[in-house]
Write a structure and sequence with these properties.
The complex is a heterodimer of chains A (196) and B (798).
Chain A: H1 6-30, H2 34-42, E1 46-57, E2 62-73, E3 77-84, E4 88-92, E5 97-98, H3 109-121, H4 124-128, E6 131-137, E7 142-148, H5 151-154, E8 159-164, E9 168-174, E10 180-190
Antiparallel strand pairs in A: 1-2, 1-10, 2-3, 3-4, 4-5, 6-7, 7-8, 8-9, 9-10
Chain B: H1 9-35, E1 42-43, H2 57-71, E2 73-79, H3 83-99, E3 103-107, H4 118-121, H5 132-141, H6 147-154, H7 170-176, E4 183-186, E5 189-194, E6 197-206, H8 213-229, E7 234-238, H9 240-274, H10 277-302, E8 305-306, H11 307-317, H12 321-334, H13 340-362, H14 367-389, H15 400-412, H16 421-438, H17 453-465, E9 473-479, H18 482-501, E10 506-509, H19 511-514, H20 518-531, H21 534-543, H22 549-555, H23 565-570, H24 572-575, E11 581-584, E12 590-598, H25 602-614, E13 618-622, H26 623-657, H27 661-682, H28 688-710, H29 715-732, H30 741-760
Parallel strand pairs in B: 1-8
Antiparallel strand pairs in B: 2-6, 2-7, 3-6, 4-5, 5-6, 9-12, 9-13, 10-12, 11-12
Classes of the chains: A alpha+beta (196), B alpha+beta (798).
């Protein structure tokens, strides 16, 4: 058998490449990636539901537990209606965190509020500037893990984990000190009309 | 002396004087060279013009310190649809300037300004820092009312509760009252949200002076390039550097337009009249020697020179061009028949009258004016001596054209009627009334500000968006030691807080808000101990936290340190306030400033002044008003002394000219009145700069008046007057088109004033020749025509 010429070999490589591309294209279209997750979350522009929040304080070996209702309007605000152990309405907008008495608190809270909104919206483009983002699972059961890129942010946040299906079901934030904030969202349903 | 062959003894003496003068000039040049061996010791600070005893060194120090942030950095706000990409592009472009060493650094990414969390470094001090609201709450009910908010805070998703270190959130409450930067982070960029817009913030720190030309050009090129690539991006710029760069660009631009046009105009006119390039050179020699003489003597006398002195003094020496032109016109027309002696009396009178004005000015208590007057007077004397001693020695190739031109021009400009004195007086009175009724004055700082309106608009918008100020209004507080100062600051803050609650629309920044006095800090700790009693237990119980937590929390109070001023100024937040701390003064006291921002009005200024008066050790300073009042003082002083000089000159002229004196003073005084009347009618306010212009008009007008009367029948005098007003008009009047307010006003005054001088001269020319060789006591000229109204043959429109 004659040795394949250079031209021959180049053609073989090329066709192989083409084959790969042809295979990859439909795969890419159907694979569950961050963009499709964002699309899926965006399908519900506003929703309401209940939450439980557990803040575990590692140093004290104890936790602060609370529960209540929430509503969320994409791109605008989250209202966190605390019912137990104390009544409080906390509204997070991209501009500020406003409590029930209308005070902006805590100072610098708008950054926290913005992060919270971006997480609930699955705004990965905005988050990608500060976090490494990893996605696992499929459309019905997905998990996203975010790790801070910069050292300054790593001092405050060790990691953030989200999981869910049609909606976000759990949000867990870990600090380097070992504290965790675990939020469970349940009884979620899309809102029609205005949020509370 | 000028006609070869005949050489009387006087001529020899004259010749010797000439050589002596040359020797003096050489000495001056050497002396000046020696004084300038380390560069020109020039002042640029306007306050250097103030009398020394009135300068408060501490106010100067505060001014400097508060202005620093504006000088050594710049700030750009960027707004664009694709904000992130545009900011990235601009930020990267600016970073290359840092790599080139033009800038020290650029902050624009989210983390560029990320200071460590205040919770980390404010920790140990928090128990001694309480806001007034919390102090009152604890004093009212022991702090029970603070439990409910603390509970809510513990369960907020956004809070970072620390039930042991700070269960009530003392620090957050205290931090909320500290000055907050409106700049925060979004999309990974430093961002300012204001008026519904997102602006990216880019902060540059300069590696050197804001006046460094290479840096200005590099930054300008970078921004231009960026705007071309991103035409949709909108930039707002702030910082002294941009103003300095705009000033330099404008000066270059005006030099190549206005400067070139006036130079070309002067060259064309002189070239046309004298048909000889030599005359041009000879025109410059007296000006150069005059400036040399003035520079050497003024520097020798004062030790330093203010830049304003240099700029305006040099313009005033321009009057010396009169002497040159009168001499040269006479020589060109009379040729060999020229005799200096015939011209000398008028030249001397012209010099004396101008110098009187400056000597009067030199007697004022304002060092700035004194310097300027000395410079102008020395310059005029120097130029005059050169004209008289040296100019006749230079050869003049008189073209017969000059004489023909003078003759024709003379005939063309003969008015058939002349202005009767009573009409002149009536008109003058009318104009005076108009001026007193309508003339306004303006001493605002804007006069000294050459920045283009667009940049000023940017600056104002940036200040407004950032809720920042350049520290132009402040209280200066002094005390014997730091504790006493903190107590005074706290007292002043309290007065201000009360006034603000009562509706005073200002805000303020004070060290007193951040660092309470030691006594106050001890009292705060006692209050916190009260709060950590029953209220703490109730909080822990309601939050469902373990009961032993209370003990751990209380233990933290035991070794809570006091926050000292030094501690505070070293923290990231305190560093922002370092500009407020003035430290030890020369008299051994300590001082700090309290910067006021917010609304401005006369009523607010009065209220702030009253607050300062009520507070021992405090004074209120408004930099803008201070510079304004300084400019106003300069203006009033000049005006007063100009008036005094005018009166003195009039007396001297009456002594020499008797009844014809009014003809001499009519052009300068008339022109002054016309300028003022035009200003009054058009609403141009009077300021220090158009008054300096009036000095120029007066000087040139007076020379014109003297020569007009002395040589009423000589075409050469009229040609010289025409040339001198025309060239001065070109040299100074053209400045009216400058965008720099100071130059614009000087130019505008010269433009109107010199044109008026030139128009007035033929009307007041005596019909009778008053031959100059026949000197002082010429008979009274019969007063001219009776018909007040008639159409005069006006000037040509050739």
């Amino acid at each position: 058998m004659p040795q394949p010429t250079l031209a021959h070999r180049a053609r073989r490589v090329l066709s192989l490449l083409l084959a790969c591309l042809c295979l990859a294209a439909p795969l890419g279209a159907y694979a569950f990636d961050l963009a499709s997750l964002q699309q899926r979350l965006a399908a519900t522009p506003s929703l309401a539901g209940k939450f439980t929040q557990q803040r575990r304080l590692a140093d004290l070996g104890t936790s602060l537990d609370s529960s209540g209702r929430f509503s969320f309007v994409r791109g605008q605000r989250v209202v966190w209606q605390l019912e137990r152990p104390v009544e409080e309405r906390i509204e997070l907008t991209p501009e500020a965190i406003v409590n029930g008495s209308g005070d902006r608190t805590p100072p610098g809270g708008e950054q926290v509020a913005r992060l919270f909104l971006q997480l609930l919206e699955g705004d990965w483009q905005a988050l990608a500037s500060r976090f490494e983002i990893a996605l696992a699972g499929d459309a019905e059961a997905w998990q996203v893990t975010l790790t801070p890129k910069a050292a300054a942010l790593r001092e405050r946040i060790a990691s953030i984990a989200l999981d869910g299906g049609r909606y976000i079901d759990h949000l867990t934030l870990r600090t380097p000190g070992g504290d965790t904030l675990a939020v469970r969202l349940y009884d979620q349903h899309p809102l029609t009309g205005e949020a509370p | 002396m000028n006609s070869p062959g005949e050489r009387p003894p006087q001529a020899t003496a004259w010749r010797w004087l000439g050589w002596l003068w040359l020797g003096v000039l050489t000495l001056c040049a050497v002396w000046l060279g020696w004084m300038l061996r380390h560069g020109l010791p020039a002042d640029t600070d306007l306050t250097a013009l103030l009398p020394a005893d009135r300068q408060v060194p501490l106010v100067e120090a505060a001014d400097r310190q508060l202005g620093e942030g504006f000088e050594d950095r710049f700030l750009i706000l960027l707004r664009a649809d694709d904000r992130v990409a545009a900011t990235q592009a601009l930020g990267d472009a600016l970073e290359t300037l840092v790599d080139d060493g033009q800038l020290a650094r650029v902050d624009w990414r989210e983390l560029d300004l990320a200071d460590a969390d205040p919770h980390d470094w404010m920790g140990p001090w928090r128990y001694r820092l309480l806001t007034p609201t919390w102090q009152q709450a604890i004093e009212r009910d022991g702090g029970e009312s603070l439990v409910e908010p603390a509970l809510r805070r513990l369960f907020s998703p956004a809070a970072r509760p620390d039930p042991v270190a700070d269960p009530f959130g003392l620090l957050d409450a205290w931090l909320a009252r500290q000055p907050q930067s409106p700049i925060d982070a979004a999309d990974g960029l430093l961002t300012l949200d204001a008026q519904g817009q997102h602006y990216s913030v880019l902060i540059g720190r300069l590696a050197g002076s804001p006046y460094a030309l290479p840096m200005q050009q590099a930054l300008h090129a970078t921004l231009e390039h960026f705007q071309q690539a991103h035409p949709e991006a909108h930039l707002l710029r702030s910082g002294l550097m941009f103003h300095a760069a705009a000033g330099a660009r404008q000066a270059r631009h005006e030099m190549s337009t206005i400067g070139a046009a006036s130079l070309l105009g002067v060259l064309l006119i002189i070239g046309f009249v004298f048909r000889s390039p030599r005359v041009l050179a000879q025109l410059l020699v007296p000006l150069v020697t005059g400036s040399l003489f003035a520079l050497a003597l003024t520097l020798g006398l004062f030790g330093r020179l203010h830049l304003l002195t240099l700029a305006f003094g040099a313009s005033l020496i321009g009057i010396a061009i009169d002497y040159v032109l009168h001499l040269q016109c006479d020589r060109a027309i009379h040729g060999r028949a020229f005799r200096l002696r015939r011209l000398l009396p008028s030249l001397i009178l012209g010099l004396i009258s101008s110098v009187i004005a400056y000597v009067a000015q030199a007697l004022t208590p304002m060092p700035g004016l004194r310097q300027m007057a000395a410079f102008a007077a020395f310059g005029l004397i120097g130029a005059w001596l050169t004209v008289v001693l040296w100019l006749p020695r230079f050869k003049l190739h008189a073209s017969p054209f000059t004489a023909r031109l003078a003759e024709r021009w003379w005939r063309l400009c003969q008015p058939r009627r002349r202005l009767p004195p009573w009409l002149a007086l009536g008109l003058a009175l009318g104009l005076i009334v108009l001026c007193t009724l309508r003339l306004t004055s303006d001493d605002s700082l804007a006069l000294l500000n050459p920045s283009p309106a667009e940049l000023m608009h940017d600056e104002a918008q940036v200040q407004q968006l950032l809720e920042r100020d350049t520290g132009s209004r402040y209280f200066l507080v002094r005390a014997d030691d730091t504790q006493a100062l903190l107590t005074r600051l706290a007292a002043l803050d309290q007065r201000l807080d009360r006034a603000i609650t009562a509706g005073l629309a200002i805000d303020y920044q004070s060290l007193g808000r951040s660092v309470p006095s030691a006594a106050e800090q001890d009292a705060n700790l006692a209050r916190v101990r009260t709060l950590y009693g029953a209220p703490l237990e109730s909080l822990i119980q309601r939050a469902g936290l373990p009961a032993d937590l209370a003990q751990a929390a209380r233990a933290r109070l035991d070794d809570a340190p006091r926050l000292t001023l030094t501690d505070w100024l070293a923290t990231p937040l305190g560093q922002l306030q370092q500009r407020l701390w003035l430290g030890q003064t020369e008299s051994g006291e300590v001082a700090a400033s309290v910067v006021v921002s917010g609304a401005r009005s006369a009523a607010i200024a009065d209220q702030l002044k009253a607050i300062a008066d009520a507070q021992p050790g405090a004074i209120y300073v408004d930099r803008v008003a201070r510079i304004g009042s300084l400019l106003g003082e300069l203006r009033r002083h000049t005006a007063g002394w100009i008036a005094a000089a005018m009166a003195l000159m009039t007396l001297a002229l009456i002594w020499r000219y008797r009844g014809r004196a009014w003809r001499v003073v009519a052009p300068p005084f008339g022109a002054t009145l016309i300028v003022l009347a035009v200003f009054a009618l058009t609403g141009v306010p009077l300021n220090i700069f158009n008054q300096l212009g009036l000095l120029l008009v007066l000087g040139i007008g007076l020379d014109a008046g003297i020569f007009n009367v002395e040589y009423a029948r000589q075409p050469s005098a009229w040609l010289a007057i025409t040339l001198s007003t025309l060239t001065s008009l070109l040299a100074f009047g053209m400045l009216a088109f400058s965008a720099t307010p100071a130059l614009h006003y000087l130019g505008l005054t010269c433009l109107i004033g010199l044109a008026s001088v030139w128009l007035l001269v033929p009307w007041v020319r005596p019909r009778e020749p008053a031959s100059a060789s026949k000197a002082p006591k010429a008979p009274k000229a019969p007063k001219a025509p009776k018909a007040p109204k008639a159409h005069f043959e006006e000037k040509s429109h050739a």
